[in-house]
Amino acid sequence: MKENKKSNSAGISRIQQMFNETFGIGPAASLSAIIFMGLVIIIALFWFFHSAPPRTIIFSSGDDGTSFQRNAEKYAKILARNGVKLKILKSEGSLENLERLENPSFKVDVGFVQTGVTKGQNISKLVSLGSISYEPLHIFYRSEKPLDLLSQFEGKRLAIGEEGTGTHVLALELLALNGIKPGGSTTLLAMDDEKAQAALLAGEIDAAFMMSDSASSKTVHVLLVKPGIRLFDFSQADAYIRRITYLHKTVLPMGSIDFGKNIPDHDIRLVSPTVELIARVDLHPALSDLLLEAATEVHSGAGLTHSRGEFPAAIQHEYQISPDAARFYKSGKSFFYRYMPFWLASLLNRTLVAFVPMLLVLIPGMRTIPAIYRWQMRLRIFRRYRALMVLEKDMMAEGANREELSQRLDNIEKAVNKMKIPASFAEQFYGLRGNIENVREDLTNVRLQKTK
C-alpha cells in the first residue's frame, strides 16, 4: 500500500516537473494546470460515453392485429439492421400510448398516437416526429337504405370503441356535434372491435365505430364485404374538417376493396385524423433519425386513402415538431449517419461532440495558466525593483539616514532570497540580485565619501 502511494506521488512529481520544464512555471501553477487538464478530460470522457445512443427503444404500439402493432413490428425489423432493438409494448390504443409517454415514471420512448386525444393531457415534454398516415374512421351500420347524417343514429345502439382508444374519443366528439350525448336516448356502448363486429353481425347493435388503432384489418375487411352491412359515407366531410381542425377528408375509392365485385360500389367519403409518431423530448437525435428512416420505408408508399410519398410528413397539430425531425425532413440524416454504419457514425459523432470542445477549452486554458503565472512572477520581481529604485532615490537625497537605508536594502535582499523562482526566470532573478549588489556598493561609496 505504501509502495503504491510512493509510486503515485512519484508519478505526480514527474508530471509536475514536465510542466515546470515545458511551460516554465512553478509547482503550484503546474499542479493547477494538471488539475485543470484532468477535469477537462474527465468531462469529455463522461460526455463521450453519456452521449452514446441507447441500443434499445421502448415502443408503445397497439393491440394484436391492429395497424399500430403491425407497423411497430416492421419498424423493429428495420432498426435491427442497425443493431438497435425495438421493444414493443402492446396497448389499447392512442390514449393509453399518450398516457404512457406523458408519465415520467413509465419506461417508454416512442408511440403511435392519433391526433385529437390530447384533451386533459400534459404534452409539454412530448414532441412529434411527424405524421405517418391517415387513420380513417369507419362507421359500419345496418340499414335498408343509406344514411346521410350522423344525427340519423339518434336512438340507436352504437358501439363507440373501448375507453382509452382514439375511436372512443373521436366518436363522442362527432356525435356531440349532432346532439347525441351519453345519457340520452342513444345507447353508447364502450365495446372492443371484435365484440362490436360480432354484435353487429348478430343484429344486437345498429352501428359500430372503428379505427385502425383498435380494429384489426381482418375485422374491417369482413364488415366491408358483408352483405347487409354498410359503411357510412360522410356527406358533410368538408364541414367536419373545418369544425374539427385535426381531421382530414379522405376517400375510399370505388372498387378499391374488390374490383371484381366492385366493393365499394361508389366513392365513400371518410373523415380521418392522422397518426403521429410521438416521442419524449430527450429522445437521442440518432434514434430519431433511425425511426424516421423506418417510417419513410414503411409509410411512404401509396395506400387506399393517400398517395405515394405523402407520408411521413412534418404536419404540426397539437404537438411541436421535434427539431431533429425538422432537420431530417429538410436535409435527411446527419452526415456521418448518411454514409457510414450506425455504430461507426455514432462513434465519430460522439468523438467530435466530446473531444473537439475539449481541445477548444484545453488549448487556450493551458496557454492561459502559464501566462497568468509569468505575469505574477514578473509582478513580484518588478515590485522588488520598484522598492530598490525608491531606495536609490532616497539615498541621493540630502540628509539621508545611511543606516536606515542599509537596513531597507537588507530587507529587500532577504525578501528576494526567499522568492521561489522557476528556471525560466533565472535571468531576471539574478539580474535583480546583481542590481541589489550594485546599489549596496553605491551606498557604501556614498558613506565613504561622507566620512572623508
Q: Tell me the overall shape.
A: rod-shaped
Characterize the quaternary organization of these chains.
Answer: single chain
Distance between the termini: 72 Å
Strand content: 5-15%
Number of strands: 12
Q: Total number of helical segments?
A: 14
Would you identify the regions where 5 or more consecutive residues have pLDDT less than 50? Answer: none
Q: Sketch the major β-sheet.
A: 5 strands, mixed
Mean pLDDT: 82
Instruction: Please bin the fraction of helical residues.
Output: 40-55%
Secondary-structure element order, N to C: HHEHEHEEEEHEHEHEHEEEHHHHHH
What does this structure look like?
By secondary structure, the chain is an alpha/beta fold. Among the domains are: 145 residues, no CATH class; 137 residues, 3-Layer(aba) Sandwich (D-Maltodextrin-Binding Protein, domain 2). It has 14 helices and 12 strands. It has a 5-stranded mixed β-sheet, sandwiched between helices. The longest helix has 54 residues. The two termini are 72 Å apart.
Descriptive tags:
single chain; 452 residues; alpha/beta; D-Maltodextrin-Binding Protein, domain 2; five-stranded mixed sheet; 14 helices; 12 strands; rod-shaped
Topology, element by element:
Blueprint: H1 2-23, H2 27-50, E1 56-60, H3 67-80, E2 85-89, H4 94-102, E3 110-114, E4 126-134, E5 138-142, E6 157-159, H5 166-177, E7 187-189, H6 193-201, E8 207-210, H7 217-225, E9 229-231, H8 237-243, E10 248-252, E11 268-272, E12 274-280, H9 285-299, H10 323-331, H11 335-339, H12 342-395, H13 402-418, H14 426-451
Parallel strand pairs: 1-2, 1-3, 6-7, 6-8
Antiparallel strand pairs: 3-12, 4-12, 5-8, 5-9, 10-11
Helix pairs in contact: 1-2, 2-12, 3-9, 12-13, 12-14, 13-14
